[in-house]
Amino acid sequence: MGTLFDEAAAAGARTVFHLDRPLDIAPDAGTRWSVPELADLVRVTAARLAAAGVRPGDRVAIVKDNHWDYDLLACAAVRAGAVPALLSDRLEPETLRTLLERLRPAALVTTCALLDRCGAASPPVRVTLDAEVPGAVHLAALDAGRTRPPVRRSDDDPLVIHHTSGTTGVPKLVVHSTRTLVHKLARFEAVRYPGIGIRRDDVLLNASAYAHGRTFCWTAVILSTPPAEVVLLTGDDPDTADPLLRAHPPTVVEALPATYVRMRPLTSRLDNPFRRVRLYISTYDAVHPPALRAYLTATRHHRPLWMQGWGQTETGPLTFRFHTRRGTLAPDAETTARRLGRPVPGRTRLRAVDPDTLRPVPRGRPGLLLVRTAALALGYLTEDERWDAKRVGDWWSTGDIGVHHRDGSVSVLDREVDSMPGLSCLRTEDLLEERLPQALECVILGAGDGDPLPVVITADGRLDPGAWKEATNGLPALREPAVLTWDDVPRTGTGKVRRAALAHRLTGTGLAGTGRWT
């Protein structure tokens, strides 16, 4: 990864990158970049990190505003021989300090505002991106003239550290190697597969949380199979994104599920920017049927596809499912949306077991989902016991309750920590969103005692009681809903609802499951 951009430039990659705002590591360099320019930027940044005191084998914590230069900084750190640890700026201050204490990095790359949030956990070497402050060095002021050859490492040495989303508590720090992340994940994806592979004339849109593991792998893929253009969004406000997307209408879109929800108003505009899309991609979390339908209907492509991946930071993608325009319009679309496809052939195996006995359950019955994959990460930093507790022989516990169907496909019903007997929170959320067009999102919070609490998220924090009564017809017993706006809901850096925090805020209690497998 340290020489990724150099190799792409040497191979003649002509991809042009368009940003919605300048990079934080190059604030005066504009919003249009070529591959050779990015290769120069990574080399210069690696030299500056070395000038700051970063040495081979060091851990470098990176926490900053959301932008793709998370990955550029990570590549620069790898080039210098260090191990980058990417931390989301959306982390709560206490959580951020906890992760920094576990990391014990030799250097911290951040902004002035976030430096204060890091507190006493900050390492001696502090590099700021936006300004000079006492006790830190400014990246732009560091000597970039002494470029060094890239430091090589074993394929099985730690390459990068990402954290899990943290929906149920303090995130885990996941360590990946070159073998697990590049050879087993990125290399498999970096093929121009018919229909779903990147084409040379494609315009790719990515709207993601760049501190998380998916985009580091994605960066390796797009430099290996370069498209014509890449458009990168750092936020999810539709009015802000609209001009850039109209100027460069994408043919392939990858975005966070929460971003798809926020950007959905663009699909109904007369000259919507998704009119050329042939392929949508989603990971991290489920996408509900109304959003699938809106985007697949918005494009003028005759046979658009939606590729939904299910996986985890520890494993990468485990299954793939394809949605079509016809499928999202089918009467049973809401009941089949949770089928997340089959395990990746030749790469992933899956089974469902009883959560208590760990014995396999028959196909078609709910159980704790276990997987086997060669892309499994090296472990959790400083939490070996927690890592070992999720191993079941040669299998890995996903922490998800689901069904392994007779045709080999898998449906995810709930995270184990969210699960309740006789009810799938996720399927109930799908049904409510299908029946409540005014809802941006619905969340079902299981409680240790009493009926589940539904949370309905709307644009204005209001919900018609009659519409709610009609929407819950035929559903299991639910409490009266809590109606919130989008900004009222605690979220992770990837836009997932922090269910444990929301449940504690609204009920004063935790979630219904045991949490054993988190």
UniProtKB/TrEMBL annotation:
<dbReference type="InterPro" id="IPR020845">
    <property type="entry name" value="AMP-binding_CS"/>
</dbReference>
<protein>
    <submittedName>
        <fullName>Long-chain acyl-CoA synthetase</fullName>
    </submittedName>
</protein>
<dbReference type="InterPro" id="IPR042099">
    <property type="entry name" value="ANL_N_sf"/>
</dbReference>
<feature type="domain" description="AMP-dependent synthetase/ligase">
    <location>
        <begin position="20"/>
        <end position="381"/>
    </location>
</feature>
<comment type="similarity">
    <text>Belongs to the ATP-dependent AMP-binding enzyme family.</text>
</comment>
<dbReference type="Pfam" id="PF00501">
    <property type="entry name" value="AMP-binding"/>
</dbReference>
<dbReference type="GO" id="GO:0031956">
    <property type="term" value="F:medium-chain fatty acid-CoA ligase activity"/>
</dbReference>
<dbReference type="GO" id="GO:0006631">
    <property type="term" value="P:fatty acid metabolic process"/>
</dbReference>
<dbReference type="InterPro" id="IPR000873">
    <property type="entry name" value="AMP-dep_synth/lig_dom"/>
</dbReference>
